[in-house]
Amino acid sequence: MKKQERALAIYERLKKRYPSPEPALDWTNAWELLVATVLAAQCTDERVNKVTPAFFSAWPTIHNVANASIEELEDAVRSTGFFRNKAKNLKAAAQRIMDVYAGNVPQTMKDLVTLPGVARKTANIVLSNAFGIHEGIAVDTHVKRLTFRMGLTKNTDPVRIEKDLMPLYPTETWGDVNHFLVYYGREVCNARKPKCTDCELNDICPKHGVE
């Protein structure tokens, strides 16, 4: 089976398994999704979802975060890990959005990645889910692991993996591709003990790197 054919077969099978894909993070607008995604780095979505309600209650708007005390922000996100860096980046991102983008989260990759703490993965998640704009495919640890095992990429760098994946799928599916692989990586194709015998992709997956 050729790579493109396998990629589309994987998509179709996972689409049946996950008919209504959505981010595991809780959010109501683009800024909340951006904050949650930044906090989710090296942290579980479950933990982030416990932290964000109090965070957005204390600082409901981008303007509020831009003017917040860095010490208070650190305390609010402490349990997500790397809290000093995350707090610093969120405050700086909020300030830049207020100063440069008139208080509105920008809607292009070029602009989003100028925000402190926002790289392509976070930008792709915000663009796809909050705005319905597909400029790329968000590559996290699950996407990186699964696409290598499934023979869709030989690269380990997220940016190169993204470039390998984009031609394999129609643009309008890029957001769902991320969701499907993240879900499946958590449920079946996990890092230490992938459940290959129970996997609905078993017959088409080359299982690269799986002992």
Q: Report the C-alpha radius of gyration, rounded.
A: 18 Å
Instruction: Give the total of domains.
Output: 2
The CATH architecture of the largest domain is Orthogonal Bundle
Chain-averaged pLDDT: 97
Rounded to the nearest angstrom, the distance between the terminal CA atoms is 22 Å
Would you tell me which CATH topology of the largest domain applies?
A: Endonuclease III, domain 1
Describe the structure.
The chain has 211 residues and is an all-alpha fold. The protein folds into 2 domains: 3-22 and 137-198, Endonuclease Iii, domain 2 (Orthogonal Bundle), CATH 1.10.1670.10; 30-131, Hypothetical protein, domain 2 (Endonuclease III, domain 1, Orthogonal Bundle), CATH 1.10.340. 55% of the residues lie in helices and 0% in strands. It contains 11 helices and no strands. It has helices at 3-17, 30-39, 45-58, 62-66, 70-77, 83-100, 109-112, 120-131, 141-149, 158-165, 174-187. α2 packs across α3 and α9 (141-149) crosses α11 (174-187). It starts with a helix and ends in a 24-residue tail after the last helix. 36% of the residues are buried.
